[in-house]
Amino acid sequence: MNNYIRFFLLLIGFASPLPSFATFEGPAHVQVQLIQEEETIKPGHPFWVALHLKIEDDWHVYWKNPGDAGIPLKVEWTLPLGFEVGPLQWPFPGKFKVADMVGFGYEGEVVLLSLITPPANLSIGQTFQLNAKLKWLVCSDLTCQPGSTTTALQVVTQNDAPKLKTETATLFSQARLKIPSFHAEVKTVRKSGIVQIEMPRANQIPNVDPVIGVYFFPEEKDVIDYKVDPVLAAASKQDQRFLVNLKGSDEIGAKSQTLKGVLVVHTQQGNEGRVQAFDIDTPIHEVGEKELISHLDTHSIRSSTLEMETQKTQASSFEFEGGIALALLFAFLGGMILNLMPCVLPVMSFKVMSFVKMAGQSRSLTIKHGLMFSLGVILSFWLLASAMLALRAYGQAVGWGFQLQEPIFVVILASVLFIFALSLFGLFEWGMFFASWAGQTQAEKATQWSGYMGSFLSGVLATAVATPCTGPFLGSAVGFAVTLPVFQSLLIFTLLGLGMCFPYLLLASFPAFLRFMPKPGPWMETFKELMGFVLLITVLWLMWVFSAQTNTFSLICLIAGFLSFAIGAWIYGKGSHPLISSKKRIIAYVTALFFILMGIEAIILPKDSWNDSSTFSQIGNGEWAGWEVFSPERVAELRKQGRPVLIDFTAKWCLICQANHIVLGSKEVDKKLSEKGVVKMVADWTKNDPVITEALSQFGRNSVPLYVFYGSDQKQEPTILPQVLTSDIVKEHINSVLNSKEVAWIE
């Protein structure tokens, strides 16, 4: 899923013809320089180089374990033949907080050292170029931006012993002070979720120096709980050791048998403090309660000296305050409301019709079909949620509905619904297996395995088309879910799925409710064909989404593919007639398969150009006239000017977003916004955008729509509008936030 994080190739600097010199280069937020410690190199003798990063104020990059989110800094070397590079020497990182998430990384300046060994057979006086390509994610309080650059260094061989470069000696010496000095000899035990480190003071920590603070940076995820600070257990002065208690992670599978990372120790030497970092790589021994080392004067010390305090006050104000119980309730209610969304209603209608057809059958049969449908829904929610959480754990900026940001998924969903619609028009019959998927299985076939599989697949399809919709209650619950441990997060998504399938479980369990439905008859055929048109409308909407994600030629190829699918389906329908001979049926099936494959080939023909388009080109024109492209920097600038700002977080695959945009674009709302001097900004999430994903998370959300309004008072917190808008709601909200005495801006 590399498409979710795209690294932009930045300007490559030119190395000076002078040996051992490289200029700073890179984007505005991060500058990189490759530096050599010695003036020359000697064949066969290792030499040190440094990657010197200068990071803009209020921005940071990530350590090899970025923490709860982020992407670690990566270095790819391109060296002359025979040169070998050792592992990157990481200085110990700092800790920073973003709302309820903890990250590990660097601010200001950071120096990464590497040892390079040249071959012994190099010619004297020869010049060689070393290249290092760096990739990073740099973040501020408001946004994150992926970046990359390539930096170069020229080195010259000489037979004499190399001399240190005086101008870089301090940089290298200070860098080595921040690299963990050696592997500390420690003992680590675990009991009841507590991981305890026992460290002898013989590890270069004098017994006379009091330990005033500690912090542990784990190299692996899901071993300890990042959010809980270590507890320093101060033993008696005669004790030649100190203890550090860490809270183990609550994540499923977080039972690592090894503790690996960096322990940073703060000691007091007179009036001065001292910081030492130690490599920890030790097995974890499971022990009983009595084996946990008792200690005196246990107290918790916040490692404030190690923290990069980037707590986002605005984000914290939007945290979900109801706790896990209320989030579960919201998820269940949100799942039920999904059934009324236009993207789900057509598929659900067929499920209800299948229950109507099974009227008169045994109650146990309808319950089994209801359970299979529910299983399809819940497993699909688990699959989508697991994929989203896994991608976020690896630093990918994704949110709810992320699969619809990928053109390939939109194509697959549109193709399935298009072929489904052709079947509803009677162009062909799915047959026993697929007919049950559409809820059209004959009552006498309902007991067959294909009927159960059809109910299961209808649940899968319902979930697939439900993800573009974010109704009331759903946005808050999903946004809260992604901040929780995996088990609790999946529990919320389980309640979401249960809420969605609850009405159908109710119908399956109590068939008496079906007496309120019309009895089976010719009307069902008409209803089926009517739903075919509804599905075609859904297909047109998906084609519109696809065109926004790609380009005109890709849309033409998609239409050509659908035409080929229609021809194939028509031939398949003709060949399925019961009176046709077996030979003609085989010919028809092969021909139909040919047209289906031709359709697939036509659709994927321009696949390489699918990611070349930009939805931003439409903003400021047509339906988006008068709107600006969302930018955190632009928002900050407008707030300093005292300008009110309305941000519309939207996506073309979000149907509620489109309905709300009609409201925001209405004359009366537009007039009110103009009178109050409100700057309108749109954050288009149709295609994946890490900046928008990060901005959504600032407000405790992981999906669209989201409507954020900043008043003219910089000290005033932004407010969030409801997910379903009307003209009166928008106008009343603006009036309540903005003082009626304010002077309107004149554009």
Query: Terminal Cα separation, in Å?
Result: 44 Å
In the sheet with the most strands, the strands line up as 13-16-17-11-12-15-14-18
* Poorly predicted spans: 1-27, 293-321, 394-398, 431-447, 613-617, 740-747
Number of structural domains: 4
Helix content, binned percent? 25-40%
Structural classification: alpha+beta
Number of strands: 24
Shape estimate: globular
Quick one: biggest sheet?
8 strands, mixed
Instruction: Report the β-strand fraction as a percent range.
Output: 15-25%
Specify the number of helices: 18
- Please state the average pLDDT score: 74
Rg measurement, Å: 31 Å
Keywords: Cytochrome c-type biogenesis, Membrane, Signal, Transmembrane, Transmembrane helix
Membrane topology: Multi-pass membrane protein
GO molecular function, one term: protein-disulfide reductase activity
Subcellular location: Membrane
Structural account:
Residues 327-543 form the Cytochrome C biogenesis protein transmembrane domain. This protein is 37% helix and 22% strand. The chain is α+β, with helices and mostly antiparallel strands. It has four domains: 2-169, Sandwich (Immunoglobulin-like), CATH 2.60.40; 187-313, Immunoglobulin-like; 323-524, no CATH class; 615-737, Glutaredoxin (3-Layer(aba) Sandwich), CATH 3.40.30. The strands form five sheets. Strands 13-16-17-11-12-15-14-18 form an eight-stranded mixed beta sheet, with no helix packed on it. Strands 20-22-21-23-24 form a five-stranded mixed beta sheet, with helices on both faces. Strands 1-2-8-5 form a four-stranded antiparallel beta sheet. A hairpin with a 4-residue loop joins strand 9 (127-139) and strand 10. It starts with 29 loop residues before the first strand and ends in a 10-residue tail after the last helix. The model is unreliable at 1-27, 293-321, 394-398, 431-447, 613-617 and 740-747 (pLDDT under 50).
